[in-house]
Amino acid sequence: KVKASLKQETKGVFWVDSTILLYWIAANPSRWKPFVANRRYSISRIGHNGSMYLVKTIISRGMSPSELFRSELWWDGPKWLRHSNEWASSITAPDLRQACNVLVRMAQAETFAEEIKNVKKGQVKGSSKLEALAPILVADILCVGGRLQNAPVSKTRKHPIILDPNHPLTTLIMQSHHHQFKHPAPQLLISIVRERFWPLRARNLARRLVHNCVKCFRSKPTCMEQLMGDLPPERRSNVLWLVRGKPALIECDNAKNFRGAARVLKELYDLFKTQQAQEAITTQ
Ligand SMILES: [Zn+2]
Question: Any alpha helices (H) in 71-224, and if so which ranges?
């Protein structure tokens, strides 16, 4: 079903961790009863590489919590899936680009169905939010049209792919650029993304994304107000500055809180030591 909906000639790779299924595949189909045998024959028709990867699941074997904590298999999956050269080298840059185009076509079919229809007819309606972009279709993908026709820039930059800001794919594309290019600020992120894409309302999207990025949040100096309970407002002026690296500002209240507490304790101590208090304690 997935293959059919992609409308693209793709080589399917199926991973399975069902031990029983792997045994069925490994043995000769004639060994099995009709139901299994028929399916086993179908797999032969598709073709399989015959190798058997047995991933013994931790769940069925059992494991102590401390072992589980250290278990690479549990947290990261089997090694061959992560490091296999065959697995990694089988995906090339053109593959990635093609996969991305497939996803973009699917997203645009959801968000710009009307516009695509109109562009095919040769006209985008005046009410469309895309009118200013004079959209064109390049390989069935809705792209920005005339704007930079004569500019000395690359073809993808001239005709970036139009993306709807509310589609999850747009967020994912922005996010992956943000991570890949080491967390640029919103404005820089937009210029990088615009090498190939044209997300509508990009500023809001980029700002929100950077604002919600944990890594960016952690590396940014922030200022937080100290929790002061119900003290009167004039005492709430103390601000705690949290910064990473060299502090821009250090504020000190000369330990007023501690000096205040010391004074109260001293008063209590003095009261304890008075003749009257000593007598009251001993007689009761
Ligand atoms: Zn970030």
Answer: 72-76, 79-83, 85-89, 93-111, 113-121, 155-158, 168-180, 186-193, 202-211, 214-219
